[in-house]
Amino acid sequence: MLPVNFRSFRKKLSLYRKTFRNFLNKTEKAPPRGIDRLTPIVAREVWEEVDCLTCANCCKKMTPTFTPQDLKRISAHFDQTPEQFKKQWLKRERNKDLVNKSQPCQFLNLEDNKCSIYAIRPVDCAGFPHLSKRKWEDYAHIHKQNIDYCPATFKMVEKLMARVGPVL
Does some domain include residue 73? Predict the structure, then answer.
């Protein structure tokens, strides 16, 4: 497994972003036959190639959505009430989601890219980047967002396109 090379990632993203997004748009509406069986296989291949600890771009550039269960669990860890935790660390977005006030994530250790609350991290973080969590058409829209930040998502779409072929 090689460290993530951000220069290479950004260059590939600039070259292929439009093509990948077109693929995701088309396959979201009309998933290719067998894609739900293929995504877990491709996801395993991706994790053999991508080391998240050399990246942490998700923690640096994105924010999880905190669920009520996340709030209870994490605030208890800090001996705070959910309200105290929200006031200190979170803000409410226009769509009413609770997200981090700042980026990078306050719980990211920038020296080693490890999460200081990994064992109790938000569910959104635990599932990220959601490569093969659900049916393709239920998650293709998430991949469209994540290819801009996550080399693992980018590599998954790249591999799927190579296997599925061009989508008309």
Answer: yes
Q: Which domain holds residue 146?
A: 6-28+35-59+129-164
Contact, 163 vs 38, CB < 8 A? yes
Q: What is the DSSP letter of 108?
A: E
**CA-atom Rg of the chain in angstroms:** 17
pTM score: 0.89
pLDDT, tens digit (0-9, with 9 covering 90-100), for 65-105:
999 999 999 999 999 999 999 999 999 998 999 999 999 99
Arithmetic mean of pLDDT, 27-40: 93
Q: 109 by DSSP, 3-state: which?
A: strand
Higher-confidence position of 85 and 135: 85
Beta bridge partners of 115: 108
pLDDT of residue 37: 93
* Statement to judge: residues 108 and 143 lie in one domain: no
The answer to whether residues 84 and 52 belong to one domain is no
- Verify cis geometry, omega within 30 degrees of 0, for the bond prior to 129: yes
Residue 15 counted as domain residue: yes
E strand or H helix at 149: none
Instruction: Please report whether residue 110 resides in a domain.
Output: yes
